[in-house]
Write a structure and sequence with these properties.
single chain; two-stranded parallel sheet; 439 residues; alpha+beta; 9 helices; 66% helix; four-stranded antiparallel beta sheet
Amino acid sequence: MKRPARLRYGSVLLPALFFAAPGAGSLTAQGSDVPRVTLTEALRRAADVDPNYVAALRQVGDADWVKRQAWMAFVIPAVDFQWSFTRFSDPQFNPGINDLAEELTVGSISAGYPLFRGGAKIYDLRGAGAGVESAVAGELQQRFQTALLTEADYYDVIAQEEFLRVSSERVRRAEEQLTVARARVVSGAAVQTDSLQLLLELTRAQVDLLIQRSSLKVAQLQLGRRVGIIGPVDAAPLDTLPGPDLPLTESEAVSEAVATSPSTLVARADLRVANEAFKSERAAYLPSISLFGAWTGFDRDIIPVATTRTSFGVAVTLPIWDGAQRELRLYRANTRRRVAEAAQRDAELEAGRDMTAAYEAYQTARASAALAANAVVVARENLRVQQERYQSGATTILDLLAAQVDLTEADAGLVQARFSPRLALAGVEALLGRRLFPK
């Protein structure tokens, strides 16, 4: 029977592909001119360049200055100095020299101190202190958030390098099997479709290798951005030891997160700020008592000392009605306080939920790593058996290809499982706001 033209074309193309395919192994070459950083160095550099962390540090400074201002307003009176020199086109009366003059110099120094404002100064000082606590907790929260993102990018680079190794192994196995299939086709022990199936697997492996190379470069560029280096940055290898046991139980971790998590500390401090602001607005209904004093000089010379006046006294102010502006401010302050109360409760509940999820994720990742290692051993042994069976003609090419795919997937799963516990641990530490193990 005459063969179809399509198969005749394949029979001519296949030998050429047999000899061209092994050259694909050159795709695994990898450059080594990329700078490399350790995890400790990456964490340090990221803290210096992350704009969110820099902003959090500046907020601490701003809050500290607000507290200083509130304290200085509490103990230091307000002082004002004024000086003016006026020249007239016609002589005018000058109270300094008690005569007509073309020049008038006036200088004054005044001071005022609010002796009592219904406790508003104390509330402002307390609110400023709570604002500092909120900013400090926010800085701690952002510090660990930056570390979490940095570790994720760092582990991604290492994982992508391992995925590249897995892809290279897949290409190597496909080339080896294609060589075996070529010999079997030449000897007549296998049909051409077996070689075509292996050639298709080799092509897919080569494409996957190219994609993986691109993924590695993108991951290295992202790590470079994270640590403030232009261009790709490589990550120093880490050990592949199993994740250690956490030094606290799940219930202890949840309790600590609810009590001292940076997010809950921020929420509690914000509530104290809102409470003090409400009290300060409420103090506007009480009278205020202020001390004041002033010195004023008049003259025609630069320094006005010809005639001086001194005044001092006590002022009492009782607010009665200002068009409901006071009531509006009080209502808004009370609204902010109620919202802060709800935010604090939600932050505590969220911290407990997130810690449970992070703790379980770490334990699951540890167990998955052990299972993934076993899966690789099983998949490798299964491939070995399928190779021997195929060479002896006891199985089909589809079973061999399935075994190769299973091993590739098992290798990729092991790579993922090795770094999942590290990332889950970083999540637990970010919620606690402290390191459980040194980096």
